[in-house]
User: What shape does this take?
Amino acid sequence: MLQAIEAKGLVKRFGGVTAVDGVDLQLAPGEALGLLGPNGAGKSTLLSLVTGLRPTDAGTVTIFGHPAGSDAARRAMGVTPQSAAFPPQITPRELIAYAAARHGMRPDTDRLIAAFGLQRLIDRRMAGFSGGEVRRVALALAFCGAPKLAVLDEPTTGLDSASQEAFQSLTRDYVASGGAVLLTSHHWDEIEAVCDRLTMIDRGQRVLDGTLAEMRATMRINQVSLVVDDPAPDWLPAPDADGRRHLDSADSDAVVTRLVREGVAFHDLLIRPLALKDILATLRHEA
Ligand SMILES: Nc1ncnc2c1ncn2[C@@H]1O[C@H](COP(=O)(O)OP(=O)(O)OP(=O)(O)O)[C@@H](O)[C@H]1O
Ligand SMILES: [Mg+2]
Assistant: This one.
């Protein structure tokens, strides 16, 4: 199958800083890939190579088989950069019409207004738009040309929670209908809500890559948490300030069976799956 994104050995340097240091990336149609990593990891720089905004220092990247930055590659994708400034006198309706025309399309403006909550904004000049309002326009622009690939840099930063949820459900529908999404996020729950795969980068290098399903399956770990009356068996960890003891285990049933068999007096037992955040911390530690 022709990949939406096929990148090999990407390198980008800024003076002495190697912002992207040999990254491979693949994204298929109908798939959402989340890019995670600390501030300065190289996420936005990597996206700028994928969108063709910057030339690579080494490596290749194609979009549906076309070199990044070519007309064909640009027409196939919609982009929301991490921060976008718009001319103050322009209205969202004009911007959307202009951006869609570059895809050779007339935009479905009514659908975009509904999807991105632009009802009261669409015909206002953008001077004075709030941060979240600008963000919603920038997202509408990414989707206005019916792209086969959406490249979104921190799409929900600055959005209120209702707009975040609307964005996540729109993105899931887009992917279900065959669209490809590459997004960056600092929000684990957003990656969990939207993405099939995630790639973590740190100092320009890929440090972790896989599907969320694989990660959950290989790391099927629960946290067992409980209060134990003294004397507690010595195989249990020390209590925290609230008197609770926490134990991560791949077999929480066995932990409970052992407690019962040994006649340990315990109460307030809680068993919860570890969050993606904790699982990633474990995987990174092993990597
Ligand atoms: N135009 C530039 N000139 C010089 N250095 C740059 C430039 N753009 C990025 N860098 C550097 O490259 C590195 C990666 O930056 P990048 O913006 O890609 O990080 P990021 O992962 O997107 O971070 P954040 O989470 O803060 O958005 C940083 O060290 C940054 O300072
Ligand atoms: Mg960034």
Q: What stands out?
A: The first strand starts at residue 5 and ends at 14.
